[in-house]
């Protein structure tokens, strides 16, 4: 489109990102917050909602999210204060 133009992209981590997930779409909205932060190389603390809807699809999605994020060094505190 623009001949002889060069784009340079620097991925500079900003630090630790806190992502507080809302109760209505906890997995979907959490992923939309943490994906760009992980791509940039940041560390993340993700707090799931306290009034979490215990439907099976939400539980399964949160378990998959936990498993995927453990490899990326993401802290996921639960309601008892423990992290995984």
UniProtKB/TrEMBL annotation:
Domain Aldehyde dehydrogenase: 5-51
Keyword terms, alphabetized: Oxidoreductase
E.C. code: 1.2.1.9
A molecular function (GO) term: lactaldehyde dehydrogenase (NAD+) activity
Keyword Oxidoreductase: yes
Pfam families attached to this UniProt entry: Aldedh (PF00171)
UniProt catalytic activity: D-glyceraldehyde 3-phosphate + NADP(+) + H2O = (2R)-3-phosphoglycerate + NADPH + 2 H(+)
Family: Belongs to the aldehyde dehydrogenase family.
Protein's name according to its UniProt entry: NADP-dependent glyceraldehyde-3-phosphate dehydrogenase
Presence of the UniProt keyword Oxidoreductase in the record: yes
Domain of life: Eukaryota
């Amino acid at each position: 489109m623009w001949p002889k133009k060069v784009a340079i992209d620097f991925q500079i981590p900003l630090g630790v990102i806190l992502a507080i997930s809302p109760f209505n779409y906890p997995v979907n909205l959490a992923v939309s917050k943490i994906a760009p932060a992980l791509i940039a190389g940041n560390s993340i603390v993700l707090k799931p909602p306290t009034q979490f809807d215990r439907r099976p699809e939400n539980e399964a999605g949160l378990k998959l999210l936990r498993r995927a994020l453990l490899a990326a060094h993401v802290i996921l505190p639960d309601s008892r204060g423990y992290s995984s």
